[in-house]
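Q&A FORM
Asked by: J.P.
Topic: structure of Gfo/Idh/MocA family oxidoreductase

PROVIDED:
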Amino acid sequence: MSKARVGFIGAGGIASAHMEALAKNGKVQMTAVFDVVPASAEKAAAKYGMQAYASYEALLDADAVDVLFVCVPPFAHGDIEEKACARGIHLFVEKPLGLDMDVIRKKAAIIREAGIMSASGYVLRYLDTASKARAYLQDKTIGMVRAHYMTGFVATPWWREMAKSGGQLVEQTTHTVDMVRFLAGDVSKVYAQMALRVSGDIENLDIPDVGTVALAFESGAIGHVDTCFIQPDHRVGVEVQGKDFRVLVEGGRLTITDREGTQTIESETGDIMFAQDSAFIDAVLTGDRSLILAPYDDALRTVEVTLAANRSAQSGLPVQLGGEA
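REPLIED BY: S.T.
REPLY: Here is the structure written out as tokens.
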């Protein structure tokens, strides 16, 4: 194919960001959209010249897409991925992949069996500074990792419900957890503490507003991730330490400190959503899977860390990881 026909399940905020990025890509023809709020689908369809459908089944049955962007809340995946796989449609599934690891692993197996291209929305991996940090760490022995995601409250109604979002760690701080894995490798054990401390006045809120997760890595390194939505500003960062060095990734800025001194590198990636989505489209068009930095099989391991942390916080006990992809 010379152009990829792209459709969307979901037309909310994150889908709109993908649409805006893909509209700049001359290798893409956006053709189809469905949303549970018909007006949202119709608005997107009018803006980008797509057909709005009354159901995702109708969209899939129309044979109108080669690539499907699944941009739904964590609780709303249903059997979208399975039905797309049955039709040989390539899948970009936004993070997080879901809220049940057994279901996610079954989806992963179906995706592998279908032989389609798959990716998830861990967009920070596409920063040039993230790749430079990873390359620097390649031959280093990591001792400790410190990471944080500190921000304000998200007013979206479903986000405040644990049964629908999985909480901040699963739905939002997952980006930081994924960067921890991207730089320092897989996690073998978690021990988490979480609490709803100062946001109890928010209506229908039942997710923790603060949390900390101790991490043990397969390499033997240790670390932690802190998360909250009680701040007036937005701060994120991952710091990786070893003997005589540390690597700090804060958004698009990379700072490396070692015996030779300190160097700061600013990202030149530009539109990171465009970089991520274009890489996926190129993978579909060329068959080159190496262009995809966050395939479904790898993304599920990030979800596994966050869901295990939730279980640890609930039980008060460490949780061992290591389930099969």
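FOLLOW-UP: DSSP finds eleven helices and 15 strands in the chain.
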